[in-house]
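Hi V.,

Quick status before I head out on leave. The structure for the redesign project is tokenized and pasted below; the design run finished overnight.
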């Protein structure tokens, strides 16, 4: 029985582990709120994350029947906005609200739900998330007139003889003369559902194109009203909020066309949508490094900072792009300047009274020959300050033949070592005697030849003198 219980516990533990493992990748996904709003109003949807994020991109993939109005990035991030897409980057990671979207909801006669979908890309982990916000739109409550709205002589009626109230007559619809023109919003304005400033409004941005279809022949509530068409719907707007002249559109392009550092490879490969890069240099000692940053739009300006006073270690370089309309976006480069180091080794190597040929710091094996020495006096100098040199095998060279000499070089902190070896061949005495005899024989031969040549010269001189 105990054995069955133990097996059951182990099986439950394994299943829990598998379930937890399968849910691992759900941690830290982006999320949105699920707001409730009244018919015809505006609603704000926030996109948040529970994990630390320093660089992100959000796209509105489906407005779900709502009308997009604006999007605002959290102030701790910098970046760009392109329509319904927003980018953000920060020098420090943070788990917080990333951005807030504002929508206009339609007018409904009964409560209705709308699904708004967002695509969120985390550039730190290169992962993406699709999140959905459910917006509940409630129908407006129609106020009931007192006593059911009866009109008569009884008390509580709208009009009557016994304490009834007199309702304010409604404003009649003004007359509109027919017009057919194209006009443009002079700024961020409200288009009304009727010719009253208290009616429901649809907000449009500066330069929005409208079709003017009518003009009120008299002022209503102090204003001359225009009847316009927007997105297939009839709207009303005060005349001084629109103009027939199309406003000059300023570019909001904050993209870079190129971003590079001379002789430095940046990672990842440059893309206008990627805001952060890394690069490495080795032993850079100049005060300033050249950064090439060119904007896509010639009307945009680029300001590079952090590329002066380059230090050993981490350097932060930024390229801020300011579009014609004032929109800004910042690209960041983390440049690591590594300290230049020299490979451990010998700077010079010499042996007293013995010829050592072809020394090089990168050559670690040598061969020499010698005679009549019982110790080789070796002079070795390291190429790093404080390095320790140990020489072994260069003493007690009594026997003829090959001897192996080792020179070990250690760094001052003891973390690096390198070895040089010398095969030292001590020549035998017999070989030396034979060589001596050969040398004597050579001297005799060369001497005899020299005497013959000298005698020949003297003979020629004597003959020449006699002839004269």
């Amino acid at each position: 029985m105990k054995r069955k219980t133990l097996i059951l516990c182990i099986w439950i533990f394994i299943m829990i582990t598998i379930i937890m493992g399968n849910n691992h990748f759900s941690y830290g996904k982006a999320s949105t709120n699920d707001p409730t709003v009244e018919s015809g109003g505006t609603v704000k949807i926030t996109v948040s994350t529970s994990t630390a994020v320093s660089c992100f991109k959000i796209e509105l993939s489906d407005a779900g029947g709502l009308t997009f109005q604006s999007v605002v990035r959290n102030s701790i991030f910098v970046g760009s906005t392109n329509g319904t897409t927003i980018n953000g980057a920060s020098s420090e990671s943070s788990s917080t609200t990333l951005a807030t979207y504002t929508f206009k909801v339609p007018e409904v006669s009964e409560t209705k739900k709308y699904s708004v979908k967002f695509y969120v890309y985390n550039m730190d982990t290169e992962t993406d998330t699709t999140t959905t916000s459910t917006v509940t739109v409630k129908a407006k409550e129609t106020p009931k007139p007192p006593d059911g709205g009866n009109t008569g002589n009884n008390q509580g009626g709208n009009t009557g003889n016994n304490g009834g109230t007199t309702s304010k007559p409604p404003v009649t619809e003004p007359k509109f003369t027919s017009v057919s023109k194209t006009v443009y919003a002079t700024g961020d304005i409200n288009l009304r559902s009727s010719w009253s400033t208290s009616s429901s409004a649809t907000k449009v941005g500066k330069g929005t194109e409208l079709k003017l279809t009518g003009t009120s022949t008299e002022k209503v509530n102090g204003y001359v009203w225009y009847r316009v068409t927007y997105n297939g719907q009839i709207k009303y707007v005060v005349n001084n909020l629109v103009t027939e002249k199309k406003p000059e559109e300023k570019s909001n392009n904050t993209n870079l066309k190129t971003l590079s550092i001379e002789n430095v490879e940046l990672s990842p490969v440059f893309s206008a949508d990627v805001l952060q890069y890394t690069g490495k240099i080795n032993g850079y000692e100049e005060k300033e490094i050249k950064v090439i940053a060119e904007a896509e739009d010639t009307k945009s300006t680029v300001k590079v900072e952090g590329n002066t006073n380059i230090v050993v270690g981490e350097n932060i370089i930024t390229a801020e792009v300011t579009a014609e309309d004032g929109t800004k976006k910042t690209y960041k480069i983390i440049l690591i300047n590594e300290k230049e180091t020299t490979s451990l080794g010998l700077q010079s190597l010499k042996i007293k009274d013995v010829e050592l040929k072809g020394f090089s710091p990168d050559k670690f094996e040598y061969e020499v020959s010698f005679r009549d020495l019982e110790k080789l006096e070796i002079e070795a100098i390291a190429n790093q300050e404080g390095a320790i040199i140990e020489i072994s095998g260069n003493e007690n060279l009594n026997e003829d033949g090959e001897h192996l000499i080792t020179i070990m070089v250690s760094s001052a902190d003891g973390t690096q070592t390198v070895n040089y070896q010398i095969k030292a061949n001590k020549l035998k005495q017999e070989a030396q005697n034979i060589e001596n005899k050969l040398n004597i024989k050579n001297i005799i031969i060369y001497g005899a030849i020299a005497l013959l040549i000298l005698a020949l010269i003297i003979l020629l001189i004597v003959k020449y003198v006699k002839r004269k």
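Above is the designed sequence. The longest helix spans residues 429-467.

G. will cover questions while I'm gone.

Best,
W.
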